[in-house]
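Exercise (ungraded).
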Amino acid sequence: MRGGVAIVGGVGHAKFGRRTDATLGELAWEAVKEALEDARLDQKDIQYFVVGNAGGWSAESLPAVIVGEYCGLNPRGGAMRVEAACASGSAALYNAYLAVASGMADIAMAIGVEKMYESPTPTVVEFIGRAGNYFWEFENFGLTFPGYYALYMTAYMNRFGATEEDFCKVAVKNHYYGSMNPKAQFYGLRITVDQCLKSRYVAWPIKLYDSSPITDGAAAVILASEELARKITDTPVWIRSVGVATGTANLSKRPDFIGLDAAYQAAEQAFKRVGIEHRDTWKYFDVADVHDCFTIAEVMAYEDLGFVERGMGIQLVRSEQTYKGGLIPVNLDGGLKAKGHPIGGLRALVWLLR
Amino acid sequence: MVMSLEAKYEEFWRQSIKQLNDVVKATGGLPIAPPDEKGQYSLWYDVRELRLRYSISVERIKKFFEGLREGKVYATKCRRCGRYYFPPPQADCPYCKASDMDWVEISGDGELLTYTIINTKPLTYSHYPDYIVAIARMREGFNVLAWLRVDDPKKVRVGMKVRLQVVKREPEGYLTYEFVPAEQ
Protein backbone atom coordinates (compact mmCIF):
# COMPACT_ATOMS: atom_id res chain seq x y z
CA MET A 1 0.00 0.00 0.00
CA ARG A 2 1.68 3.18 -1.17
CA GLY A 3 1.18 6.17 1.05
CA GLY A 4 0.15 4.12 4.06
CA VAL A 5 0.04 6.17 7.24
CA ALA A 6 0.13 4.83 10.78
CA ILE A 7 -0.02 6.12 14.30
CA VAL A 8 3.26 4.79 15.59
CA GLY A 9 2.65 4.30 19.24
CA GLY A 10 3.43 7.95 19.77
CA VAL A 11 0.45 8.99 21.77
CA GLY A 12 0.49 11.55 24.54
CA HIS A 13 -2.38 12.78 26.60
CA ALA A 14 -2.41 15.44 29.30
CA LYS A 15 -4.89 15.08 32.14
CA PHE A 16 -8.09 16.87 31.10
CA GLY A 17 -9.89 19.19 33.48
CA ARG A 18 -9.55 22.59 35.10
CA ARG A 19 -5.82 22.80 34.48
CA THR A 20 -5.06 26.18 35.97
CA ASP A 21 -1.78 24.71 37.22
CA ALA A 22 -0.24 24.76 33.74
CA THR A 23 0.31 27.22 30.88
CA LEU A 24 -0.63 26.43 27.29
CA GLY A 25 2.97 25.44 26.54
CA GLU A 26 3.31 23.32 29.66
CA LEU A 27 0.05 21.54 28.97
CA ALA A 28 1.06 20.80 25.36
CA TRP A 29 4.45 19.56 26.58
CA GLU A 30 2.80 16.99 28.86
CA ALA A 31 1.22 15.45 25.76
CA VAL A 32 4.19 15.93 23.41
CA LYS A 33 6.67 14.44 25.92
CA GLU A 34 4.48 11.40 26.45
CA ALA A 35 4.06 10.94 22.69
CA LEU A 36 7.80 11.16 22.03
CA GLU A 37 8.58 8.72 24.85
CA ASP A 38 5.83 6.37 23.76
CA ALA A 39 7.30 6.18 20.25
CA ARG A 40 10.90 6.34 21.49
CA LEU A 41 11.53 9.26 19.17
CA ASP A 42 13.23 12.61 19.61
CA GLN A 43 12.15 16.10 18.56
CA LYS A 44 14.71 15.99 15.73
CA ASP A 45 12.83 13.01 14.25
CA ILE A 46 9.63 15.04 13.89
CA GLN A 47 9.83 16.61 10.45
CA TYR A 48 6.48 18.37 10.61
CA PHE A 49 4.07 19.37 13.33
CA VAL A 50 0.75 21.14 13.43
CA VAL A 51 -1.30 22.53 16.32
CA GLY A 52 -5.09 22.30 16.65
CA ASN A 53 -6.46 25.13 18.78
CA ALA A 54 -9.62 27.23 18.67
CA GLY A 55 -8.50 29.85 21.16
CA GLY A 56 -9.88 33.28 21.93
CA TRP A 57 -10.50 32.51 25.58
CA SER A 58 -6.79 32.03 26.26
CA ALA A 59 -4.08 34.67 26.36
CA GLU A 60 -1.82 33.31 23.64
CA SER A 61 -3.64 34.26 20.47
CA LEU A 62 -1.12 32.68 18.07
CA PRO A 63 -0.39 29.51 20.00
CA ALA A 64 1.35 27.25 17.46
CA VAL A 65 4.71 29.01 17.71
CA ILE A 66 4.40 29.12 21.52
CA VAL A 67 3.82 25.36 21.64
CA GLY A 68 6.61 24.61 19.15
CA GLU A 69 9.08 26.74 21.10
CA TYR A 70 8.17 25.32 24.50
CA CYS A 71 8.32 21.72 23.30
CA GLY A 72 11.57 22.14 21.36
CA LEU A 73 9.85 21.34 18.06
CA ASN A 74 10.69 24.56 16.20
CA PRO A 75 11.87 25.29 13.56
CA ARG A 76 10.35 22.24 11.84
CA GLY A 77 6.78 22.38 10.66
CA GLY A 78 6.38 26.11 10.36
CA ALA A 79 4.34 26.20 13.58
CA MET A 80 0.89 26.31 12.06
CA ARG A 81 -2.36 26.45 13.91
CA VAL A 82 -5.38 24.79 12.34
CA GLU A 83 -8.88 25.67 13.46
CA ALA A 84 -12.08 23.80 12.69
CA ALA A 85 -14.11 24.75 15.77
CA CYS A 86 -14.76 21.62 17.85
CA ALA A 87 -12.99 19.52 15.20
CA SER A 88 -9.71 21.48 15.46
CA GLY A 89 -7.93 18.48 16.97
CA SER A 90 -9.18 16.22 14.19
CA ALA A 91 -8.16 18.89 11.70
CA ALA A 92 -4.62 18.78 13.08
CA LEU A 93 -4.60 15.00 12.75
CA TYR A 94 -5.93 15.27 9.19
CA ASN A 95 -3.30 17.86 8.33
CA ALA A 96 -0.47 15.69 9.69
CA TYR A 97 -1.97 12.70 7.86
CA LEU A 98 -1.87 14.64 4.58
CA ALA A 99 1.75 15.59 5.22
CA VAL A 100 2.77 11.94 5.60
CA ALA A 101 0.44 10.53 2.93
CA SER A 102 1.73 13.01 0.36
CA GLY A 103 5.34 12.12 1.12
CA MET A 104 6.16 15.65 2.34
CA ALA A 105 7.14 14.23 5.72
CA ASP A 106 8.05 10.75 6.91
CA ILE A 107 7.18 11.49 10.52
CA ALA A 108 4.69 14.15 11.61
CA MET A 109 3.08 15.14 14.88
CA ALA A 110 -0.45 16.42 15.44
CA ILE A 111 -1.01 18.34 18.66
CA GLY A 112 -4.32 19.55 20.04
CA VAL A 113 -4.32 21.96 22.96
CA GLU A 114 -6.85 24.25 24.60
CA LYS A 115 -6.87 26.43 27.72
CA MET A 116 -10.46 27.48 28.32
CA TYR A 117 -10.27 28.37 32.00
CA GLU A 118 -8.23 31.50 31.28
CA SER A 119 -11.54 33.35 30.78
CA PRO A 120 -14.70 33.56 32.89
CA THR A 121 -17.56 31.24 31.87
CA PRO A 122 -19.85 33.93 30.31
CA THR A 123 -16.94 34.92 28.04
CA VAL A 124 -16.35 31.29 27.05
CA VAL A 125 -20.09 30.88 26.33
CA GLU A 126 -19.85 34.03 24.20
CA PHE A 127 -16.85 32.75 22.20
CA ILE A 128 -18.41 29.36 21.42
CA GLY A 129 -21.74 31.01 20.62
CA ARG A 130 -19.96 33.14 18.02
CA ALA A 131 -18.70 29.98 16.32
CA GLY A 132 -21.60 29.80 13.85
CA ASN A 133 -22.36 32.76 11.60
CA TYR A 134 -21.52 35.61 13.94
CA PHE A 135 -23.38 38.48 12.33
CA TRP A 136 -26.58 36.72 11.27
CA GLU A 137 -27.20 34.33 14.12
CA PHE A 138 -25.27 35.62 17.12
CA GLU A 139 -25.31 39.43 16.86
CA ASN A 140 -29.10 39.52 16.97
CA PHE A 141 -30.16 36.22 18.47
CA GLY A 142 -27.43 35.19 20.90
CA LEU A 143 -27.30 31.49 20.13
CA THR A 144 -25.01 29.47 22.34
CA PHE A 145 -23.40 26.16 21.47
CA PRO A 146 -25.76 24.20 23.70
CA GLY A 147 -28.44 26.23 21.89
CA TYR A 148 -27.28 24.98 18.49
CA TYR A 149 -27.59 21.37 19.60
CA ALA A 150 -30.81 22.06 21.51
CA LEU A 151 -32.39 23.00 18.17
CA TYR A 152 -31.52 19.48 17.01
CA MET A 153 -32.68 17.84 20.23
CA THR A 154 -36.10 19.53 20.11
CA ALA A 155 -36.62 18.45 16.51
CA TYR A 156 -35.33 14.92 17.14
CA MET A 157 -37.55 14.44 20.20
CA ASN A 158 -40.53 15.76 18.31
CA ARG A 159 -39.93 13.57 15.27
CA PHE A 160 -38.95 10.28 16.90
CA GLY A 161 -40.59 10.40 20.31
CA ALA A 162 -37.30 10.45 22.19
CA THR A 163 -37.37 11.84 25.73
CA GLU A 164 -35.03 13.84 27.92
CA GLU A 165 -34.60 10.67 29.94
CA ASP A 166 -33.35 8.78 26.86
CA PHE A 167 -30.66 11.38 26.32
CA CYS A 168 -29.66 11.30 29.97
CA LYS A 169 -28.83 7.62 29.47
CA VAL A 170 -26.09 8.65 27.05
CA ALA A 171 -24.64 10.91 29.73
CA VAL A 172 -24.81 8.09 32.28
CA LYS A 173 -22.94 5.73 29.92
CA ASN A 174 -20.18 8.21 29.10
CA HIS A 175 -19.72 9.12 32.75
CA TYR A 176 -19.54 5.42 33.56
CA TYR A 177 -16.58 4.98 31.20
CA GLY A 178 -15.08 8.38 32.01
CA SER A 179 -15.09 7.46 35.69
CA MET A 180 -12.57 4.73 34.85
CA ASN A 181 -10.27 6.96 32.77
CA PRO A 182 -7.59 8.61 34.94
CA LYS A 183 -7.07 11.28 32.24
CA ALA A 184 -10.74 12.25 32.23
CA GLN A 185 -12.05 15.47 33.74
CA PHE A 186 -14.72 13.47 35.61
CA TYR A 187 -12.48 10.57 36.63
CA GLY A 188 -14.17 8.69 39.45
CA LEU A 189 -17.50 10.44 38.95
CA ARG A 190 -20.53 8.42 37.90
CA ILE A 191 -23.99 9.93 37.54
CA THR A 192 -27.56 8.62 37.54
CA VAL A 193 -30.41 9.33 35.14
CA ASP A 194 -32.20 11.08 37.99
CA GLN A 195 -29.27 13.41 38.69
CA CYS A 196 -29.13 14.26 35.00
CA LEU A 197 -32.88 14.92 34.79
CA LYS A 198 -32.73 17.22 37.80
CA SER A 199 -29.78 19.24 36.51
CA ARG A 200 -30.58 22.77 35.38
CA TYR A 201 -31.35 23.70 31.79
CA VAL A 202 -28.59 25.50 29.91
CA ALA A 203 -30.50 25.62 26.61
CA TRP A 204 -33.82 23.84 26.91
CA PRO A 205 -34.15 20.87 26.38
CA ILE A 206 -30.40 20.49 26.99
CA LYS A 207 -29.46 20.30 30.63
CA LEU A 208 -26.12 20.75 32.31
CA TYR A 209 -25.62 16.98 32.46
CA ASP A 210 -26.38 16.61 28.74
CA SER A 211 -23.39 18.87 28.10
CA SER A 212 -19.67 18.38 27.90
CA PRO A 213 -17.77 20.61 30.31
CA ILE A 214 -15.42 23.52 29.77
CA THR A 215 -12.00 21.85 29.66
CA ASP A 216 -8.28 22.52 29.57
CA GLY A 217 -6.41 19.73 27.88
CA ALA A 218 -3.86 18.56 25.33
CA ALA A 219 -3.06 15.46 23.33
CA ALA A 220 -0.48 14.57 20.71
CA VAL A 221 -0.04 11.74 18.22
CA ILE A 222 2.86 10.84 15.97
CA LEU A 223 2.22 9.57 12.45
CA ALA A 224 4.72 7.83 10.22
CA SER A 225 4.93 6.57 6.66
CA GLU A 226 4.42 2.90 6.01
CA GLU A 227 8.12 2.23 5.60
CA LEU A 228 9.14 3.93 8.83
CA ALA A 229 6.15 2.87 10.89
CA ARG A 230 7.24 -0.76 10.96
CA LYS A 231 10.74 0.27 12.11
CA ILE A 232 9.39 2.43 14.93
CA THR A 233 6.88 0.00 16.37
CA ASP A 234 5.66 -3.58 16.14
CA THR A 235 2.08 -2.40 16.66
CA PRO A 236 1.36 0.47 14.28
CA VAL A 237 -2.26 1.61 14.14
CA TRP A 238 -3.03 2.12 10.46
CA ILE A 239 -5.25 4.95 9.36
CA ARG A 240 -7.24 3.11 6.75
CA SER A 241 -9.54 5.87 5.64
CA VAL A 242 -10.46 9.46 6.36
CA GLY A 243 -13.44 11.53 5.26
CA VAL A 244 -14.08 15.24 5.74
CA ALA A 245 -17.09 17.42 5.01
CA THR A 246 -18.56 20.76 6.06
CA GLY A 247 -22.10 21.94 6.84
CA THR A 248 -23.42 25.50 6.76
CA ALA A 249 -22.39 28.10 9.34
CA ASN A 250 -25.96 29.41 9.46
CA LEU A 251 -28.06 26.81 11.27
CA SER A 252 -31.15 28.14 9.51
CA LYS A 253 -29.77 26.94 6.18
CA ARG A 254 -29.88 23.31 7.26
CA PRO A 255 -32.75 21.31 5.78
CA ASP A 256 -33.81 19.46 8.93
CA PHE A 257 -32.58 19.12 12.47
CA ILE A 258 -32.44 15.39 13.01
CA GLY A 259 -28.93 14.66 11.76
CA LEU A 260 -25.68 16.32 10.72
CA ASP A 261 -25.33 16.10 6.97
CA ALA A 262 -21.62 16.93 7.14
CA ALA A 263 -21.03 13.92 9.41
CA TYR A 264 -23.03 11.73 7.03
CA GLN A 265 -21.06 12.96 4.01
CA ALA A 266 -17.70 12.54 5.75
CA ALA A 267 -18.63 8.99 6.77
CA GLU A 268 -19.77 8.26 3.22
CA GLN A 269 -16.34 9.24 1.88
CA ALA A 270 -14.47 7.27 4.52
CA PHE A 271 -16.58 4.14 3.98
CA LYS A 272 -16.35 4.37 0.20
CA ARG A 273 -12.55 4.32 0.28
CA VAL A 274 -12.52 0.99 2.07
CA GLY A 275 -15.52 -0.43 0.25
CA ILE A 276 -18.01 -0.38 3.12
CA GLU A 277 -21.68 0.16 2.45
CA HIS A 278 -23.12 3.06 4.47
CA ARG A 279 -25.70 0.99 6.37
CA ASP A 280 -25.64 -1.39 9.33
CA THR A 281 -22.05 -0.25 9.69
CA TRP A 282 -21.94 -1.42 13.32
CA LYS A 283 -20.93 -4.83 12.01
CA TYR A 284 -17.64 -3.54 10.60
CA PHE A 285 -16.39 -2.00 13.85
CA ASP A 286 -15.49 -3.26 17.31
CA VAL A 287 -15.58 0.18 18.89
CA ALA A 288 -16.28 3.80 17.96
CA ASP A 289 -15.39 7.23 19.26
CA VAL A 290 -17.91 9.86 18.21
CA HIS A 291 -18.44 13.56 18.85
CA ASP A 292 -20.61 13.83 21.97
CA CYS A 293 -20.32 17.50 22.93
CA PHE A 294 -23.99 17.06 23.90
CA THR A 295 -25.93 13.83 24.32
CA ILE A 296 -28.01 14.53 21.18
CA ALA A 297 -24.77 14.73 19.18
CA GLU A 298 -23.85 11.16 20.11
CA VAL A 299 -27.27 9.82 19.12
CA MET A 300 -27.19 11.63 15.76
CA ALA A 301 -23.66 10.27 15.18
CA TYR A 302 -24.96 6.69 15.54
CA GLU A 303 -27.27 7.43 12.63
CA ASP A 304 -25.02 9.65 10.50
CA LEU A 305 -22.29 7.00 10.68
CA GLY A 306 -24.83 4.39 9.65
CA PHE A 307 -24.68 2.14 12.72
CA VAL A 308 -28.47 2.19 12.55
CA GLU A 309 -31.09 3.98 10.47
CA ARG A 310 -32.32 7.51 11.08
CA GLY A 311 -34.48 7.64 14.19
CA MET A 312 -33.18 4.33 15.54
CA GLY A 313 -30.21 5.76 17.42
CA ILE A 314 -32.32 6.33 20.47
CA GLN A 315 -33.23 2.61 20.46
CA LEU A 316 -29.51 1.78 20.72
CA VAL A 317 -29.43 3.93 23.85
CA ARG A 318 -32.55 2.38 25.37
CA SER A 319 -31.27 -1.15 24.85
CA GLU A 320 -27.77 -0.22 26.07
CA GLN A 321 -26.22 -1.46 22.83
CA THR A 322 -23.44 1.12 22.91
CA TYR A 323 -21.96 -0.23 26.13
CA LYS A 324 -19.06 -2.69 26.04
CA GLY A 325 -20.46 -6.03 24.91
CA GLY A 326 -23.26 -4.34 22.96
CA LEU A 327 -23.78 -4.00 19.22
CA ILE A 328 -21.28 -1.15 18.91
CA PRO A 329 -19.52 0.18 22.03
CA VAL A 330 -19.19 3.97 21.80
CA ASN A 331 -16.96 6.45 23.63
CA LEU A 332 -15.32 4.01 25.99
CA ASP A 333 -12.89 6.76 27.01
CA GLY A 334 -15.77 8.75 28.50
CA GLY A 335 -16.31 10.87 25.40
CA LEU A 336 -16.25 14.64 25.37
CA LYS A 337 -19.09 14.42 27.84
CA ALA A 338 -17.11 12.91 30.72
CA LYS A 339 -13.50 12.96 29.57
CA GLY A 340 -13.78 16.65 28.80
CA HIS A 341 -14.05 18.87 25.74
CA PRO A 342 -11.05 21.14 25.20
CA ILE A 343 -12.39 22.61 21.95
CA GLY A 344 -9.18 22.23 19.92
CA GLY A 345 -8.00 19.18 21.82
CA LEU A 346 -7.46 15.75 20.38
CA ARG A 347 -8.96 12.60 21.80
CA ALA A 348 -6.84 9.54 21.51
CA LEU A 349 -8.37 6.11 21.50
CA VAL A 350 -5.19 4.52 20.34
CA TRP A 351 -4.35 2.67 23.55
CA LEU A 352 -7.50 0.69 23.12
CA LEU A 353 -6.72 -0.11 19.50
CA ARG A 354 -3.30 -1.45 20.36
CA MET B 1 -36.18 43.04 34.47
CA VAL B 2 -33.82 44.17 31.73
CA MET B 3 -30.78 45.77 33.31
CA SER B 4 -29.10 48.38 31.15
CA LEU B 5 -26.18 47.17 29.10
CA GLU B 6 -23.82 49.81 30.44
CA ALA B 7 -24.53 48.97 34.07
CA LYS B 8 -24.00 45.25 33.46
CA TYR B 9 -20.72 45.75 31.61
CA GLU B 10 -19.37 48.34 33.97
CA GLU B 11 -20.04 46.01 36.87
CA PHE B 12 -18.25 43.14 35.11
CA TRP B 13 -15.16 45.18 34.26
CA ARG B 14 -15.11 46.98 37.61
CA GLN B 15 -14.99 43.62 39.38
CA SER B 16 -12.01 42.37 37.42
CA ILE B 17 -10.04 45.61 37.82
CA LYS B 18 -10.82 45.65 41.54
CA GLN B 19 -9.59 42.06 41.83
CA LEU B 20 -6.35 43.00 40.11
CA ASN B 21 -5.77 46.06 42.32
CA ASP B 22 -6.56 44.15 45.50
CA VAL B 23 -4.17 41.36 44.66
CA VAL B 24 -1.31 43.67 43.68
CA LYS B 25 -1.77 45.56 46.96
CA ALA B 26 -2.05 42.42 49.09
CA THR B 27 1.03 40.74 47.62
CA GLY B 28 3.28 43.77 47.68
CA GLY B 29 3.49 44.04 43.94
CA LEU B 30 2.58 40.75 42.27
CA PRO B 31 -0.72 40.34 40.41
CA ILE B 32 -0.83 36.70 41.45
CA ALA B 33 -3.86 35.36 43.27
CA PRO B 34 -2.97 32.75 45.90
CA PRO B 35 -4.39 29.21 45.64
CA ASP B 36 -7.92 29.01 47.02
CA GLU B 37 -9.84 26.37 48.93
CA LYS B 38 -11.55 25.13 45.73
CA GLY B 39 -8.25 23.78 44.48
CA GLN B 40 -7.56 26.78 42.27
CA TYR B 41 -3.84 27.24 41.62
CA SER B 42 -1.85 30.47 41.73
CA LEU B 43 -3.04 32.66 38.88
CA TRP B 44 -1.56 35.76 37.29
CA TYR B 45 -4.25 38.41 36.82
CA ASP B 46 -3.72 39.86 33.38
CA VAL B 47 -2.69 43.53 33.71
CA ARG B 48 -3.74 44.26 30.10
CA GLU B 49 -7.39 44.26 29.16
CA LEU B 50 -8.74 43.74 25.65
CA ARG B 51 -12.23 44.95 24.76
CA LEU B 52 -13.36 44.23 21.22
CA ARG B 53 -16.10 45.85 19.17
CA TYR B 54 -15.92 45.25 15.44
CA SER B 55 -16.87 47.49 12.51
CA ILE B 56 -18.74 45.23 10.11
CA SER B 57 -19.14 45.99 6.39
CA VAL B 58 -22.75 46.24 5.20
CA GLU B 59 -22.37 48.51 2.17
CA ARG B 60 -23.45 45.94 -0.42
CA ILE B 61 -26.56 44.88 1.51
CA LYS B 62 -27.68 48.32 2.67
CA LYS B 63 -31.08 47.67 1.18
CA PHE B 64 -31.74 45.05 3.85
CA PHE B 65 -31.32 47.59 6.63
CA GLU B 66 -33.35 50.22 4.78
CA GLY B 67 -36.06 47.55 4.59
CA LEU B 68 -36.08 47.13 8.37
CA ARG B 69 -36.83 50.83 8.71
CA GLU B 70 -39.88 50.29 6.45
CA GLY B 71 -40.96 47.27 8.50
CA LYS B 72 -39.83 44.79 5.82
CA VAL B 73 -37.44 41.86 5.93
CA TYR B 74 -35.69 41.45 2.58
CA ALA B 75 -33.97 38.44 1.07
CA THR B 76 -32.07 38.48 -2.20
CA LYS B 77 -32.96 36.32 -5.17
CA CYS B 78 -30.62 35.53 -8.06
CA ARG B 79 -32.12 36.75 -11.33
CA ARG B 80 -30.43 33.92 -13.23
CA CYS B 81 -31.07 30.78 -11.18
CA GLY B 82 -33.88 31.97 -8.89
CA ARG B 83 -32.10 30.96 -5.66
CA TYR B 84 -33.08 32.82 -2.52
CA TYR B 85 -30.34 34.07 -0.22
CA PHE B 86 -31.09 34.55 3.46
CA PRO B 87 -29.33 34.91 5.76
CA PRO B 88 -27.37 36.77 4.75
CA PRO B 89 -29.13 38.38 1.79
CA GLN B 90 -26.05 37.72 -0.35
CA ALA B 91 -24.95 40.31 -2.87
CA ASP B 92 -23.40 37.56 -4.98
CA CYS B 93 -24.66 34.24 -6.34
CA PRO B 94 -21.63 31.93 -6.16
CA TYR B 95 -23.32 29.30 -8.37
CA CYS B 96 -24.01 31.66 -11.27
CA LYS B 97 -20.84 33.60 -10.50
CA ALA B 98 -22.98 36.70 -10.90
CA SER B 99 -24.12 39.64 -8.78
CA ASP B 100 -27.41 40.13 -10.52
CA MET B 101 -29.78 40.06 -7.55
CA ASP B 102 -33.37 41.11 -6.83
CA TRP B 103 -34.39 42.32 -3.40
CA VAL B 104 -37.60 40.54 -2.39
CA GLU B 105 -39.63 40.99 0.76
CA ILE B 106 -39.97 37.78 2.79
CA SER B 107 -43.65 36.77 3.00
CA GLY B 108 -43.45 36.47 6.76
CA ASP B 109 -45.58 33.32 7.05
CA GLY B 110 -43.74 30.37 8.50
CA GLU B 111 -44.05 27.09 10.30
CA LEU B 112 -41.92 26.35 13.35
CA LEU B 113 -39.29 23.67 12.68
CA THR B 114 -37.56 23.73 16.03
CA TYR B 115 -36.71 25.96 18.99
CA THR B 116 -34.71 26.28 22.20
CA ILE B 117 -34.76 28.49 25.27
CA ILE B 118 -31.38 30.01 26.07
CA ASN B 119 -30.98 29.77 29.84
CA THR B 120 -27.21 30.09 30.18
CA LYS B 121 -26.47 33.26 28.26
CA PRO B 122 -23.37 34.71 26.64
CA LEU B 123 -21.78 37.69 28.38
CA THR B 124 -23.23 40.21 25.91
CA TYR B 125 -26.74 38.75 26.33
CA SER B 126 -26.64 38.56 30.11
CA HIS B 127 -28.90 41.60 30.52
CA TYR B 128 -31.86 39.93 28.74
CA PRO B 129 -34.35 37.52 30.34
CA ASP B 130 -34.17 33.94 28.96
CA TYR B 131 -35.10 34.02 25.26
CA ILE B 132 -36.52 31.57 22.75
CA VAL B 133 -34.53 31.06 19.56
CA ALA B 134 -36.62 29.43 16.83
CA ILE B 135 -36.20 28.32 13.24
CA ALA B 136 -39.19 28.43 10.90
CA ARG B 137 -39.68 27.27 7.32
CA MET B 138 -41.06 30.20 5.37
CA ARG B 139 -43.66 29.97 2.62
CA GLU B 140 -40.90 30.58 0.04
CA GLY B 141 -39.19 27.34 1.13
CA PHE B 142 -36.18 28.68 3.00
CA ASN B 143 -35.68 28.93 6.77
CA VAL B 144 -35.34 31.92 9.07
CA LEU B 145 -33.84 31.91 12.56
CA ALA B 146 -35.02 34.51 15.07
CA TRP B 147 -36.31 35.04 18.58
CA LEU B 148 -39.90 33.89 19.13
CA ARG B 149 -41.97 36.22 21.30
CA VAL B 150 -44.66 34.43 23.34
CA ASP B 151 -46.33 34.99 26.68
CA ASP B 152 -45.96 31.37 27.74
CA PRO B 153 -43.05 29.24 26.45
CA LYS B 154 -45.02 26.10 27.38
CA LYS B 155 -47.45 26.82 24.55
CA VAL B 156 -44.75 26.69 21.88
CA ARG B 157 -45.04 23.67 19.59
CA VAL B 158 -43.05 22.40 16.64
CA GLY B 159 -45.28 22.88 13.61
CA MET B 160 -47.07 25.97 14.91
CA LYS B 161 -47.65 28.85 12.50
CA VAL B 162 -45.54 31.93 13.09
CA ARG B 163 -45.22 35.36 11.54
CA LEU B 164 -41.99 37.28 11.00
CA GLN B 165 -42.06 40.94 12.00
CA VAL B 166 -39.69 43.85 12.37
CA VAL B 167 -39.26 45.02 15.96
CA LYS B 168 -37.07 47.26 18.05
CA ARG B 169 -34.75 45.31 20.33
CA GLU B 170 -34.75 46.94 23.75
CA PRO B 171 -32.96 48.27 25.71
CA GLU B 172 -30.62 49.00 22.77
CA GLY B 173 -33.51 50.29 20.63
CA TYR B 174 -32.19 48.98 17.30
CA LEU B 175 -34.23 47.40 14.51
CA THR B 176 -34.23 43.65 14.04
CA TYR B 177 -36.79 40.91 13.32
CA GLU B 178 -38.55 38.27 15.40
CA PHE B 179 -41.32 35.67 15.21
CA VAL B 180 -44.71 35.89 16.89
CA PRO B 181 -47.42 33.21 16.87
CA ALA B 182 -49.60 33.70 13.74
CA GLU B 183 -52.89 33.41 15.64
CA GLN B 184 -52.09 36.30 17.94
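Further reading is listed at the end of the chapter. For now, observe: Residues 5-44 of chain B form one domain. The longest strand of chain B covers residues 109-118.
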